[in-house]
Amino acid sequence: MTAPTPQRLTGKPTILGDGMTIVRTLPSARRRSIGAWCFLDHFGPVDVSTQDGLRVGPHPHIGLQTVTWLLDGEILHRDSLGSVQVIRPGQLNLMTSGCGISHSEESPPEHSPSLHGAQLWIALPDAHRFGEPTFAHHAELPVFTHDGLRISVLLGDVLGHVSPGQVFSPLMGAELFADAATPATLPLRADFEYGIQVLTGRLQVDDEVLEPGTLLYLEAGREQLNLIADAGCRALLIGGEPLTETLLMWWNFVARTQGELSMACADWNAGAKYFGDVTGYPGQRLEAPRPPW
Ligand code: MN
Description:
By secondary structure, the chain is mainly β. It has one helix at 258-269; strands spanning 7-10, 13-15, 21-26, 37-47, 55-61, 64-72, 75-79, 84-87, 92-96, 101-106, 114-123, 134-138, 143-146, 149-155, 157-158, 161-162, 171-178, 182-187, 193-200, 203-205, 208-210, 214-218, 224-229, 234-240, 248-250, 253-255. Manganese (II) ion (MN) binds next to β5.
């Protein structure tokens, strides 16, 4: 039996004022989510040796978890729960917005010359999206080798290695790293759909050659992933049970109706208490843009 042809979701690089390149591959015009994963930004690598680096002022979230993963450099996270946390490569920041949270992200004053990483969002299912906001920093994650790949388990279970990160629907996320060129086979769950995106280097899945900037979508029903990785390749594999709920997203909010999104924007701009306050960030909070409807 041949698996359906994978779908290439190629993002358009955006270069920000500070020279940071960001490529968003999810959501895309052709695909809104993979499991509950609903957003993927790949940022950098960018040379921050002679500048402040990342500066994302206080902004709110609802209806989601944010997942931050670094390949190079460090980011200082502050949030309205009082968390102040530096994240480094190999570590996981997992923030659960629940009914409302706000946070900021910045390069610490003393930072590495290069910044490179990814930020992803996971939609909270309806039953959990009005829960308590929480923040977790996981300094140690399961890391193991399999078929020549070094696999770090960000979330969920990969070959029995289970991340400590708390999620609210069946899903997984892992980084695959090939020190030397290698073919590899990973078992997949047939009830999950998957996406694989290269962050550095190159790998091949089926007949698809992948480089940074493209997320390859794999429909549910596959039992395994056959890949060939080039030396030095690093890729993210995400997967989960296809969503049955229809998400609406605007700015930093994930909800179900336009009314909810409009209200979240208006509430944030009016300083509503349920988003809390971020203290200590050296700059201005961000303003929610007015929705187009
Ligand atoms: Mn954010």
